[in-house]
Amino acid sequence: MTAGDQREAAADTIAPTGDGLGDHDGATISAADLRRLRGDHDGTTIPRGERSAAPTRAARARIRLSSGEAVALDRPIVIGRRPRATRSTGAELPHLVSVESPSLDISRSHVEVIPDADSVVVVDLHSTNGTTLLRGGEEPVQLHPGEHTVVVTGDVVDLGDGVSFAFEDLP
């Protein structure tokens, strides 16, 4: 195993947190934690060569907007008043989902949803008014701009101005 492979393998494992949580919010979970919670794997990491680029349940995984519209999680999704794809490749153009925001509380490109083989993350795209994650039985969490947050089926993301979306049938 080369030094680069060792660094990648170390990045894919969970580091012990010690006695304190440091700057960890106590609610964030890693993809490995998510696999263990679901019981999909024995907790070992999946070698990078075995990861697929698309979600394993792409045909069913989706988000449902508060308007009732459903969008398949077969590739990244950018949601906003007038969303743009700035970091995409020709092979994987994201879904661009426009939402109404009469009070202009929602940014042009407000949030991105990124599916992976075994998890889905949501990223606030440095929106002006922020993004809130609502998870059943827990306090609302304000997402940190640019930070990837793992979501699970049933989670709801509130963009403001009466617009939200829920995650359904995630891997």
UniProtKB/TrEMBL annotation:
Keyword check for Transferase: no
Signal peptide location: none
Keywords assigned: Phosphoprotein
Region (Disordered): 1-27
Bias (Basic and acidic residues) ranges: 1-10
Origin: domain of life: Bacteria
InterPro entries found in the cross-reference section: FHA_dom, SMAD_FHA_dom_sf
Protein name: FHA domain-containing protein
